[in-house]
Amino acid sequence: MDFSAPSAARTQAPRWPALAMAAVVLTAVGLLVAQRVDDGQVRLVAAIVGYALGALAATALASVYRAGANTARLSTEFRPIPWLDRMVTALLVLGLVVGLAQAFFIATEMAK
Questions:
Q1: What domain count does the chain have?
Q2: Distance CA 64, CA 95 (A)
């Protein structure tokens, strides 16, 4: 008899990339808001960090999440988490929008 608990890591998508993605995207949004509040001036370093977090890191973490979910789907005991899939998609869109806004600010600053 096997009394060990079933491993949830094998039957569900990993949650850590989604949580890390939420932190990264919220930080990028915070940097964007902080730039606009500060007398309307754009700080180049904050814009570069916001772009890296919003566009690059969020995309990488979404890819890690999707790869983990696809690996977990191979199990016959797979249990999908629909709200987590929707959250990752929404965070990816938000991260890309913030990244594009930061890229615009970077390009504007470089053109001056």
A1: 1
A2: 15
